[in-house]
Every structure is written in structure tokens, then in C-alpha cells.
């Protein structure tokens, strides 16, 4: 499978439900979207939809788990690596790619922050971000360097969430944000000359 093609998730029907539901959640908002509307857009009965998912929360949680699996894998990998500048650059690069692959879900989460916090995924997102911050942060460095490390992570978020309306190619925007994030991490690891 090429890296440019979307990763196939388990079951075509399940994936279609997730994709259509996310499309509707982004268009209308999570609260304003009903299971009936999802079923209608899919051109299936509500009973057919219930076979796979009982609630909207079940749909969004399953989608979240599928799309964010690479981030969990990245965290596990990073925990086994030395806390070097090279490792931190790789964490940023891989995190940026994972966010790009799940762009629609991350936009949903940005547009529906209150809903995300209320759902069980909200706590998972928070814990994951705190863990990434700890993996990127300089342990004993000056406070300004620690802020640079934390800012590097959130620069990637800014590129994904807040620069999406900037003219140009979204991939160029992602790469620009990654370059700035990498610069911040590099500055935080300056060598004493």
C-alpha cells in the first residue's frame, strides 16, 4: 500500500458508516446529526446502522481509535528511544504525518471541542498530548527551552487547525508548520559552545 493512499480500516460497511458520520458531524456538528440522518445518507435502514453502531458516540469512538492508532504507536516507539534531538525531530515528523492522515477527525475535534471533552475520547486526547509534551520537553533545560519544546507540538496543531484556510497546498502548510516546529526543538537543544 502506498503512503499516499488512505489506510484501509476494518470492514468496508463499518468504514463507510464512519466516513459518512464524520462528514455529517463536520458539516452540521455532532449534536445536530442524528443516527437517522447517517442512515439516510448511507441509504440503509437504521437497523442496518445499529448492527454496526448503537450510538453516535460508538461511531466517533471507533473512528477516533482507528485514526489515532499511529499516534499511540509513535508514543510507544518514542518511550523506547533516547531523548535526543534526533528522536524528538522524528516524533514531530511522524506526529505531523499522523495528523495529516486523520485531518477530518482533527478538524471535527477542533470544531466540536465541548463535545470532544464530554465524550470518553476527550480524556484520551488530553493524556496523549501530555505524554507527547513530556517526550519532547527538555528535562533540565531553562524554562524558555521547555516552552520551545511544548510550542513545537502546538505549532503542528496550529498548522492543521488554524492555517487550513490559508491559500495554497495543505501539504505545503503542513511542511511549513513542521519546519517551524523542528526549528523550535532545535533551538531548545542548543549546544554550549
UniProtKB/TrEMBL annotation:
Residue ranges for the DNA-binding region feature of this UniProt entry: 34-53
Pfam families linked to this entry: TetR_N (PF00440)
Keyword Transcription regulation on entry: yes
Stored InterPro entries: DNA-bd_HTH_TetR-type_CS (IPR023772), Homeodomain-like_sf (IPR009057), HTH-type_TetR-like_transc_reg (IPR050109), HTH_TetR (IPR001647)
Gene3D superfamilies tied to this protein: Tetracycline Repressor, domain 2
PROSITE patterns: HTH_TETR_1 (PS01081), HTH_TETR_2 (PS50977)
Signal peptide: none
Protein name in UniProt: TetR family transcriptional regulator
UniProtKB keywords: DNA-binding, Transcription, Transcription regulation
Family annotation (PANTHER family): HTH-TYPE TRANSCRIPTIONAL REGULATOR BETI, HTH-TYPE TRANSCRIPTIONAL REGULATOR RUTR
Source organism superkingdom: Bacteria
Domain HTH tetR-type: 11-71
Amino acid at each position: 500500500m502506498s503512503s499516499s493512499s488512505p489506510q484501509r480500516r476494518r470492514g468496508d460497511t463499518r468504514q463507510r458508516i464512519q466516513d459518512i458520520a464524520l462528514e455529517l458531524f463536520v458539516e452540521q456538528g455532532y449534536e445536530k446529526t442524528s443516527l437517522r440522518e447517517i442512515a439516510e445518507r448511507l441509504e440503509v435502514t437504521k437497523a442496518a446502522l445499529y448492527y454496526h453502531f448503537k450510538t453516535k458516540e460508538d461511531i466517533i469512538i471507533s473512528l477516533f481509535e482507528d485514526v489515532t492508532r499511529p499516534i499511540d504507536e509513535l508514543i510507544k516507539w518514542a518511550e523506547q528511544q533516547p531523548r535526543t534531538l534526533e528522536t524528538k525531530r522524528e516524533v514531530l515528523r511522524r506526529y505531523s504525518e499522523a495528523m495529516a492522515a486523520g485531518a477530518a477527525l482533527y478538524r471535527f475535534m477542533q470544531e466540536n471541542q465541548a463535545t470532544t471533552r464530554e465524550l470518553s475520547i476527550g480524556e484520551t486526547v488530553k493524556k496523549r498530548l501530555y505524554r507527547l509534551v513530556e517526550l519532547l520537553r527538555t528535562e533540565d533545560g531553562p524554562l524558555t527551552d521547555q516552552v520551545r519544546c511544548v510550542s513545537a507540538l502546538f505549532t503542528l496543531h496550529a498548522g492543521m487547525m488554524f492555517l487550513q484556510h490559508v491559500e495554497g497546498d495543505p501539504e505545503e502548510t503542513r511542511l511549513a508548520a513542521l519546519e517551524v516546529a523542528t526549528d523550535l526543538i532545535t533551538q531548545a537543544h542548543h549546544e554550549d559552545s
